Structures are given as structure tokens and as C-alpha cells.
Amino acid sequence: MANNDITSSSSSSSSSLPVREIPGSYGLPLLGPLTDRFNYSWFQGPEKFFRKRIEKNKSTVFRTNVPPSFPFFLANPKVVAVLDCKSFAHMFDMELVEKKNTLVGDWMPSTRFTGGRRVCAYLDTSEPQHEQIKNFAMDTLKRSSTIWVPTLTTLLDTMWDTIESQLDSGPVSYLVPIQKFIFAFASLCIAGADPANSPDIADKGYIRMDRWLAVQLLPIVPITAFQPLVEIFLHSFPYPYFLVSRDYKKLYEFVESEGKEVISRAQTEFKLSKEDATHNLLFILGFNAFGGFSILFPTLLSALAADKTGVQEKLRKEVREKAGPASGLSLRSVQEMDLVQSFVYETLRLNPPVPLQYGRARKDFELSSHDSVFKIKKGELLCGYQPLVMRDPKVFDDPETFVPDRFTGEKGKELLSYLYWSNGPQSGMPSGSNKQCAAKDYVTLTTSLFLAHMFLRYDSVTITNASFTAVDKPTP
């Protein structure tokens, strides 16, 4: 079980540990980064890549290279990997680590993708505008909480009606229906913008958002299929903004026009320019909300499909007890659904939407793992692969197994301190002085609402290969 001192970076919890040189190697210039890139993206994939190096170095802290790298990226691929809960937790200490331009590593997509400015995700906490924008984001989320549930249930009913109408013809993929739902939901709740008011956005908004995200992220997304074509054409150079300039322009105009109230509040209450407010709002809507939920919801359904323990019946029972006719589905009722929330947390533990977290050392400091202390030099880039970090066997029992009720009860609540998917522990609190996701609690509650709504509507669902093949409605 968890050790209460596990996330402490103080010398008192590490004084008895031996100091060790950081193991691992960056290899020969050019050849080392290229070999690691091929192993990471092609021959091994990220998880095997990191596991093999843990075994080789006999350490969860080691030196290695991560993409992007040679030939056309102006990025330094050298990192210090931190792959256990204790060492990874140093990344949340803003006195030790800075986050300037480290969202996706040493490389940063062109600012042309975000209106020629560094949006909040690329700002360090020491930069004055970080707190302004972060507070604006948190305020926007708080204000939207009054429409969150009714908007979600209305849009989900529409999504499910569409899926049901197509099931007679065979399996129905849930990927596109979910993306359409997410885009409309996030637009309404975050930007106050209704896609229905723009025919182009109503029809193509989610597609435009997909393209904008893909062109930025393709160079760093590992794809083991279609090799070596992927390495040659997708991972060797960054893609230019002009490929999606029309998409971004359409999305910007939509948010600017339909999100006037939110943008005006950013100007008057948070002293942001109209352009800064709009580009940051679009990034939050697109990169954080749309991009994150587009990964999380399908992952949740995949976990449901893979379950062999009868968890659907247990979820259905809890949902209908807590959100019956008297109380209904609400933020309050879903917070009383321990198993539903635990199922969401376990999904995030094993498959966080953002698998990698980075941070650069502000100064020389000593970093502790469970068994050693390592000297980190100012400027070194730390890299944590969260799907392995959150399978730390010193923290989680049976860490490789999806355990639906892992986070229930008192022991389960304690484990939330080691659920790191949000750039901070689930037990933490986002603020202008840290980099934790502003929507941390909204993400878990929204995903719980998504799951609860499904089991209010259906007794069970049958899922195969990312498609619904059957839904079983309650008998009237």
C-alpha cells in the first residue's frame, strides 16, 4: 500500500537513501537519438521502451532520448526519465521545476497554430500572464457548472438516439458520435458558443478541430503500424501551419462570434486582450477538452468492454440507487457514486489521456526514487511516462490489473494522492501558482456523468472493436 512519505521531496524522507549516479546513456551524437527514436516509435513502442530501460539500468530514474529528434527538429532529445511515483512527484514542485515551453518536451509546435502567441499551457508559473489566464479558465469553468448537467444530458440523449437508430443495420462505431457530442458540449459549456448557430461548425467543427490537433501532434505520436513510412513522412519534420490555417480561422471566428460574453469577461475581469482571450479559450476548448475527452471516453468504453467481473450490473445498481426519480442525475448525485468514480479513476490510472509529462530543472537539486537519490543539474529536462508511473508496485497492489473498485473506501481515497493524470495529484487543487489542469475535477465528474447517464438509460451495453453492437433498455 501507499507510503505517506512517497511524494515528499524533502531531505528528511531521503536521508537514508544512497546517492547514485543517474544511469543510462544518450549514445553517440545523431546515432543515439535516432536509435532511441526508432525504438520508441517503431520497434518497441513507448511502454516497452521505458520498461526495457528500467530493467537494463535497474532503476526507475535514468538517462535516455525521446522523440522528436534528428533530422529536422530543433530540439534536444536528452531527458532524465522519472518512472515511479516518488521521483515523478518532483515535477509538481514549482520551486524545483519550470514548465516553460515543455508541454510536449523540448520541442514546441509553431505559435502560428495558436495565433502567434504562447497560450497558457506553454507558460511557466513565473510568467505573469500564466496566473491571469489560469484564473480566467477556472472562473469560466465554475460559472458553467450551472448548465453542465442539463447540457450534457440533452446532448447525450441526442447521441444515443442516433446510435440506437443505426443499430438495426449492424454495429455502430462510437468514435464519431462521441466526438460530435464532445465538440458541442465543450463549445457550449466552456465558450458559451452554440455550434447550431453556424452551419459550417455544426457540420464540420469536430473535423476541423481534429485536423488542427493532428498536424501539431503527429510528429510526436508513436505509431508502430505502417512503418517505415510513418518515420519518414510523419516523424521526421514538423508540419506547417498553412495545412490547417483555414480550419483554425473558422474555429477562431466561431469562438469570437459566439463566445462574446466569455471573451468580454476575460477582458474586463482578467485584463486579457480580446486576442489573448480568444486564442486561449480556443486552445482550452480544442486541445484540453475536445482532445482530452476524445481519448478518455473511448478508453473508458474499452475498459467496460474488456471487463469480465460483471461490473456493468454493479454500476447500474449504484447509478439507479443514487440518481433515482427523487434525486435525478446531478453533480451532487454523481459524487455519491463511489464505484462509478472509481471506474473513471482506474481508467485514468492505466491510460491517462496525456501519457507524458515534462519539466525542466530550475536549479540543481536532489531527486529521490524509492531506493536512491540522484543529483539533477539545472536545465536538465525530466520526463515521466505516466502509464508506468501509476503502475508503481510500491504504491498500487496488482498494478497491471484494471480493478474497478480500487479507489473506493478509505484506502482507495488515500490512493488519489498518487493519481497523477492531471499534472498533479487527484487530491490536489489547481491554482494560478501551479500547472495542474484547471478542469481536473470537471473532467472526472463529466466522465462519471457520461457513465452514469449510460446506465440510467440502459441495463447493459455490448461493445466490440470500438463499436456498439447492442444496448439493453430497461423493461417499462
What are its keywords?
alpha+beta, three-stranded antiparallel beta sheet, single chain, disordered N terminus, five-stranded mixed beta sheet, 476 residues
What is this structure's SSE topology?
Elements: H1 31-43, H2 46-57, E1 61-65, E2 78-82, H3 85-88, E3 97-98, H4 128-167, E4 172-173, H5 175-191, H6 199-217, H7 229-233, H8 245-258, H9 260-270, H10 274-306, H11 311-322, H12 331-335, H13 338-350, E5 356-361, E6 365-368, E7 373-376, E8 381-385, H14 386-389, H15 409-415, H16 440-457, E9 460-464, E10 467-472
Parallel strand pairs: 2-8
Antiparallel strand pairs: 1-2, 3-5, 4-10, 5-8, 6-7, 9-10
Structure description:
This protein has 16 helices and ten strands. The chain is globular, with a radius of gyration of 22 Å. It is α+β, with helices and mostly antiparallel strands and 476 residues long. The longest helix is centred in the first third of the chain and has 40 residues, at 128-167. Helix 1 packs across helix 2, helix 4 crosses helix 5 and helix 11 (311-322) crosses helix 16. It has a five-stranded mixed sheet. Strands 4-10-9 form a three-stranded antiparallel sheet. The model is unreliable at 1-5 and 7-12 (pLDDT under 50). Strand 6 and strand 7 (373-376) form a beta hairpin.
Briefly summarize what is shown.
The chain has helices spanning 31-43, 46-57, 85-88, 128-167, 175-191, 199-217, 229-233, 245-258, 260-270, 274-306, 311-322, 331-335, 338-350, 386-389, 409-415, 440-457, and strands at 61-65, 78-82, 97-98, 172-173, 356-361, 365-368, 373-376, 381-385, 460-464, 467-472.
